[in-house]
Amino acid sequence: MRFTFFLLTLLAAGCQARPPQESAASHSPSRVAPDARLRETRWVPRQLAGQLVAVPADTQEPYLLLRADGTAEGNGSCNRFRGTFFSEQAGELKFSPLMSTRMACAAIAIENEFTRALGQSSTYRISGDTLLLFNATNAPVARLEAVYLR
Predict the structure, then answer these.
(1) Which of 46, 62, 63, 149 is exposed most, by the fewest CB atoms within 10 A?
(2) For the chain, what are the domain ranges?
């Protein structure tokens, strides 16, 4: 009898649809991805001044890259920019005036709003792959998304 019970238990375990480490409990929505890093992450604006960013065809996707050495660089869609940033206290993020090339393109309005948001930035919050920038009155000025290169 014990041998039959052992054999049935062993057979039932062998018929599981998923290995034990992949049970339904491990796929629960309560699992949270770690927050992206502020520095050395490519941040792409998804919302500026409360408006979704829609980049016209044949223009480059804007992005921001904050380097470990304190330099900020990126592309507004038409022009490359570069400057420095300050993040000396937890949650603080301020930019020096950004230097940029001055070429026109179909996305110049997006670029202007992007650089304006960076210039207004005072604090930030990262949640998962989302970077939120806030001005000095704690009003949101931009929502950016981490984009990982493969």
Answers:
(1) 149
(2) 42-147
Please write down the HEC assignment for all residues of the chain. Answer: CHHHHHHHHHHHHHCCCCCHHHCHHHHCCCCCCCCCCCCCCEEEEEEECCEECCCCCCCCCCEEEECCCCEEEEECCCCEEEEEEECCCCCECEECCCEECCCCCCCHHHHHHHHHHHHHCCEEEEECCEEEEECCCCCEEEEEEEECCC
pTM given for the model: 0.76
The structure tokens listed for 63 are 């992005």
Domain 42-147, architecture per CATH: Beta Barrel (2.40)
What pLDDT, on the 0 to 100 scale, is given for residue 150? 63
